[in-house]
Request: fold
Amino acid sequence: MKPIIECVPNISEGRRPEIYNAIAAEVEKVEGVTLLDVDPGAATNRTVITFVGSPENVIDAAFLLIKKASELIDMSQHSGEHPRFGATDVCPLVPVSGISLKELIPYAHQLGKRIGEELNLSGFYYESAASKPERTNLATVRSGEYEGLNDKLENPEWKTDFGPQEFNPSFGCMALGVRDFLVAYNVNLNTSSVRRANSVAFDVRENGRVKREGHPVTGKIVRDENGDAVRSPGMLKAVKGIGWYIEEYGIAQVSMNLTNISITKVHEAFEACRKSANNRGMRVTGSELVGLIPKKAMIEAGKYYLKQQQRSTGVAESEIIKIAIKSMGLDELSPFDPNKKIIEYVMQSKESQPLLKMPIKAFAEETASESPAPGGGSISAYAGALGAALATMVANLSANKRGWDDKIEVFSNHAENGQTLMSDLLNLVDEDTNAFNKIMEAFRLAKNTDEEKAIRKEAIENATKNAIEVPFNIMKKALESMELIKEMAVNGNPNSVSDAGVAALCARTAVRGAFLNVKINAGDLNDTAWGDQKIKAGNGMQTKAELLENEIIQIVEGKL
Reply:
């Protein structure tokens, strides 16, 4: 899984669109970064900008944004209701998928170093990136705000983590951090009572409720030896919550911030509210997601509810997402469009995958056209994807076979594996065509001077290696799928054994077809030793694929 991170800088300008839009526009200068949202607030005089992409691309975009903010915002002229101390006030990096919180910290430090050295701007690290335990809390780092910043920087205990120690009246100072993904999530109740909604919120949130003697509402507060109120913790960790009434919908909600969805998942918060509401004579009718959510959270929810239904979790991703939406009632108050609410889908909609988006008839016609791409590599990847799809189908039919209830989990796991392999191979359909196009782009580079010729030669060599790596990966994924296919031929639903046979033929075609592409491109390499290694490994994979194909077909024929 390619790592994806989110960046949510808050800039100290929310009243002049020409300023905050110009700052946000810097993000779109970096290829591979998707600008998700620009949310200005006039009262706070603050704009929250959200964008996502690979870690390297995101920190490049963040650098450009911070640079532009330092040029267009003058903190000495700023006023607003929100706490702040800098033109770019805070800049958190947030893991979305394929990267952990810990793995993201070096990227924050790399960005801070660059801001200090190249822009001569100052800042402190906070949350998971903090240089000292006492700097973890953002409120502590920002204490004194802009007006107290000059005095703060003169205090030896507040040495900046990056940039100069001197007060910069125009920029101020910034907080740069790494934090978990925060999900704003509201659960709908069949009541209009805020007090009853609060009772559910107090049951589930980590901070719970204040302990009282006797009556839970009017009783005397229990205090510890220091005079502080004693609290009874709630059901869920990393959850903040309160009850409120939404006039627009005429219902009360439990409004929650899930501050770490690795600790408390969205569906766990929903189920906790449902349990509390039921115990208090109410009913949860649905829920509402505010903002965007990582795909992983929706997949986890969908699989949880599929297991509750004793169904295979290896069904199509779209079905898993649909089950999550319906089970948590995410579409009760307004339509829930996964393409607009799930981060990876928003990114995907802006990425170029022209072949995957084609109907199969159009794909075949495009292949048959005069254009040299898509060619054999893309077709090999698609054949492999069809083989993995058939194996997945057999696994799901086996999981749902009457009388095989004790085998649901085993075949469900096989089906999940098949879905992953199918997805990987489908992505390689466009990857192969992109690899060919990159070779063509390299050949079109200028070659007038010796320097241009050298650049062009290196670009052609790198593009050719990429055009070998892609079909080589097709071979690996298709070969991996053959182990699953064999398992389905041996132990899967006997009524579908012929489908396992067809899957084997597709997978072997993918391996052999992709290898032809490896070999033809290897002939154009200057680095022949590298190419020879790929061909040697490819020969091994092809031989293994042919042996597996023969084994599987013999098994299939023996059962027909």
Remarks:
- The chain has a mean pLDDT of 93.
- The radius of gyration is 28 Å.
- The chain has three domains: 4-178, 183-296+305-348, 352-559.
- Residues 108 and 478 are 38 Å apart (CA to CA).
